[in-house]
Amino acid sequence: MRIKLIVSTLAIMTALSACGKEDATTKVGEGQETTQETVDENIDLFAGLDAAVASSDEGNKLLSAYDGPYGGVPHFDEMDLAGVKAALEAGMARNLAEVDAIANNPDAPSFANTIIPLEKTGQELGNVFTYWGIWSANMSSPEFREIQQEMAPKLSEFFSKITQNDKLFARVRAIYEGDEYKSLDAARQRVVWLTYDGFASNGATLEGEAKERYAAINQRLAELRTSFSNNVLADEEGYVTYISDDQLSGLPESFVKAAAAAATQREHDGEYAITNTRSSMDPFLIYSDERDLRETVWRTYYNRGDNGDEHDNNAIIAETLQLRDERVKLLGYGNYAEWRLQNRMAKTPKRALDLMEAVWPAALARVEEEVAEMQAIVDADGGDFEIAPWDYRYYMEKVRQAKYDLNSDEVKQYLQLGKLREAMFFVAGELFNFEFASVPEGSVPVWHEDVGVWEVTDKTTGDHIGLWYLDPFSRPGKRSGAWMTGYRAHDTLGGVEKHPLVSNNSNFIKGAPGEPVLISWDDAGTYFHEFGHALHGLSSNVDYPTLNSGVRDYTEFQSQLLERWLTTDKVIDNYLVHYQTGEPIPAELVAKIKAAATFNQGFSTTEYLASALVDMRYHTVDPTGIDPDAFERATLADLGMPDEIVMRHRSPHFGHIFSGEGYSAGYYGYMWADVLTADAAEAFAEAPGGFYDEDVAASLVEHLFASRNSVDPADAYRAFRGRDAKIEALMRDRGFPVPGADADDSTVD
User: Fold this and answer.
1) How far is residue 319 from each of residues 265, 309, 632, measured CA to CA in Å?
2) Are 611 and 635 in contact (CB under 8 A)?
3) Gap between the Cα atoms of 237 and 259, Å rounded
4) How many C-alpha atoms does 725 have within 13 Å on its Cβ side?
5) 322: exposed, middle or buried (C-beta count within 10 Å: 0-12, 13-18, 19+)?
6) What's the pLDDT score for residue 695?
7) 568 vs 480: CA distance, rounded Å
8) Rg for the chain (alpha carbons), in Å?
9) What is the three-class DSSP state of 12?
10) Of 183, 249, 522, 731, which has the fewest beta carbons less than 10 angstroms from its beta carbon?
11) CA of 475: how far to CAs of 133, 350, 472, in Å?
12) What phi and psi values does residue 471 have, to the nearest 5 degrees?
């Protein structure tokens, strides 16, 4: 159902052939085939409805259908914030009219007259949300944030009117529980189930005061998550550390040039800006010799949303947790995590916790080893202090150099952003048979001059697949981090194939004019990771919009897996070349990189798991009267969190779980997906052709990428691997001891 995709997209932003087949034979499971019943996908219930018309030309442009080449593209060059409120109002009115037309249809409910029309609802509103997403994540401004705050409760009320429409839900339930459901093929059955569950899990079964209270809670939560994300962005924009020439000791030349450019952009010529984003903070903490400055930058970054001022998020967190708990108890659940995980791969909080707690002791033991190695260097240098959180990255880099003779800045000289993009295109060509070509200049509108666009085609046939947008650089108004988003998903609804429009967005520091952008090894992995999300969208071959939705603890698997191709010989030999000489990265440096593959796993695993465990505990306790700051400290103490490390995302800026609900009680999903990743990587490693084995790659694309959410993720993985994933693969992958568990206890399904 298209509206479900819009709801998911909105939550994230406030923080991704033929149709109408007649007697076609479709594969529904391994070794099983069924003959599809003919379904009329062209029943038009909306013919007599008024079009969505805004009160301004600017609003109508936002509502209008995409046009131009490649099946139509968004009008990013004409989007005007002045029209967004009017466009939203008109889009919501049209969408509600569509829903009412479905709900009030006098004909008996069927897949053709209920589910198919639902899949078609919200086209105009979906267009508006494309631009809303750009203003929210890529081009935010104080003016937009005011509109966002004003519209958040109205949007929540709108969504509640749909999910709590009794007549509509009765029709969906009649189909789900009726005889027709049994005659549908597997993909259509899944559309029905996902649609039914989208209603049932979001208050459709409630009545009277409970239903009203549920809607009121959702409305308030929409306000809170908008405030939370805007507060974090305000702190990222408002806290910048400026340093002078005499404070550059240890910093690489590439970083210094980028910091100078960032300062100039902010009208601080002659200074160097350490912005309050991970892409700036991380390298500064790795290389700066100025310990006091490292502490300043560290505290500035990790105190986002926790400064006791107008942008402090602690009260928002407390209210959010209490409202989430109240809401799920209206549905009969014991806590929020039970509700959230019921339809995820983990199924229950216990299974998610079991996985995390199996890895946690090994991570802590590795941290103890890492700290001892760092402290030895401090002591040998005559330092009269113990390792603190702002020292960890700096001294681990020294340990890396001592143990592996590996200098991160030396590696960086071979990691050019442009060459890495070419490497990703190469991998996509080898695995997916995709070819990327830059579109003619000016042929596709973009929202900023830094944005590039590439057409994706099939290498063999030349057929158009979709478009890939790239917005790589940090700037004021752009949220931190890296993400993928989509502006159109693949489907064949009504017999018309729609081609995906997807984008990757990063926050690399733009260098001076003419200077190549060099990034760290970790950032290169993230670049590949987000491209994996894009490939997941581009490879879709599903027929219905709802089947492009995702299961949160599964959708990170595809992106995490793609990171593995960064270390393949074909990528290393051809794309990791020195930015000045063009010479390939030396074999001895590659050997050092691979030897250090599990280096620093104590730090990376512990900072991640701490966030995931705190997230799960937030959503399994009674939150009445909760003090987030005290709860965070008490939980970490109970876990035995090392003093030298902090959570990857401290609660006041933990946007994954408080700027939306996609990852709430679900941050564990990265590790759940990483079990699948490690296990799938071993499948490639064991194959005759290694990571470029044609048969394994074809199976990967068919079962784990192209099918999207048309198949239960556990079944999809078994179709690829022939069994469930094994946790032992994860432990081997991270260089941790493999516990002596039997096979039944060590699988993820």
Assistant:
1) 38, 17, 15
2) no
3) 15
4) 30
5) middle
6) 98
7) 29
8) 26
9) helix
10) 249
11) 16, 41, 10
12) -120, 90
pLDDT tens-place string over residues 217-253:
999 999 999 999 999 999 999 999 999 999 999 999 9
Within 10 Å of residue 299's Cβ, how many Cβ atoms? 13
The number of residues in the chain equals: 749
Beta bridge partners of 518: 416
Contact present, 253 and 287 (Cβ < 8 Å): no
Please, which residues bridge with residue 416 across strands?
518
Query: What does the block give as tokens for 462?
Result: 């030349």
- Whose tokens are 């084995």? That residue is 693
The residues near 720 (Cβ < 8 Å, ≥ 6 apart) are 680, 683, 699, 700, 703, 704
Which residues share a beta bridge with 435? Answer: 457
Asked if 716 contacts 704 with a C-beta cutoff of 8 angstroms, the reply is yes
CA nearest neighbour of 520 among 395, 426, 393, 710: 393
437 by DSSP, 3-state: which? Answer: strand
Locus of tokens 């876990």: 639
What token pair was written down for 207?
A: 């009545």
φ, ψ of residue 577 to 5 degrees: the values are -120, 150
pLDDT tens per residue across span 115-129: 999 999 999 999 999
Q: For residue 25, give the H/E element and its range.
A: strand 25-29
8 Å CB contact between 2 and 123: yes
CB distance 294 to 391 below 8 Å: yes
Active site residues: 530
Phi, psi of 117 (to 5 degrees): -60, -35
**Lookup result for tokens 């060099």:** 518
